[in-house]
Amino acid sequence: MTKTTRKWLLGIFIAAFLILLSVTVQKNLKFELGNRENFALADSDKRLKNGIMVLCYHRVLNDNTAVKTVEDLTPNNQLHAYNENLSQFKQQMDYLAKHHVKVISTSQMVTMLKKHKTVHGKYVVLTFDDIDRTLVENAAPVMKKHHYPFTASIITGNTGRYFGGEQLATWSQILKLKRESGSRMELGVHTNNMHYLEHGTPAFNLRRNYTKFKQDFATSEEMMLEKTGHTSDIFTYPYGSGTSQVENFLMAQPTLKVIYTLNNGIVTTRQNLNLTPRMIVNDSSWKSIRAWL
Q1: Taking the model in full, what pTM does it have?
Q2: Cα atoms in the 13 Å half-sphere on the side-chain side of 27
């Protein structure tokens, strides 16, 4: 066998391997996406004529080749469930403006529900978990254009770190954004240093970590006070929910007015604020969100 023949055979082998790999990846992607969690609004909530829909974002990514390539090649839930591209985010904010949807702050929601037993009309609250750098660099300028208020929940002991596939904003970046946004930006606590899993379970939900969680909550509020001059009346669950023990502890905190979850749904009464439902915004949920609005 000549050297040229060996090169041709090697080239054919590599090409065949890459084709097989591509087919396998596409099959796995199709399977994973077809079986992922449905984030659309529940049928029972679609019929509600009044309420406050709290939208939840994590990362708002630039539309570039690298992002699109990774999205096309991986079924990673972190990418498809917890990311929105900047172009999509702009379209969503433009949609709210075009259709005169009333975007209110978390504080306005609390005040509204204190004054009235039920909500009249449809409203939206914008929330962001973790305070990734993309909130500062991508999402904030879009909301500034529309003068939209928003709430950002911070992992007070993890600022500036690379965390779960995202680059968290530094305290310096967060405080600068707060100064620029003024009252439009509200800060919530997202634990101090307990936003992680232990064997697949949120660490703060483990019974053996309950005392540690209470201490962590106190530390997160102390950090907020040190950095911003005041504590926060908003707590946002990492991973979306807590055990009854954790829930009871949080609901007993006199300073907390809102406890944000990732339970799918719409706020209709003041009681909802103890376990405030939110809609994760992604390709799977936006169609139903838009239809309800």
Answers
A1: 0.84
A2: 6
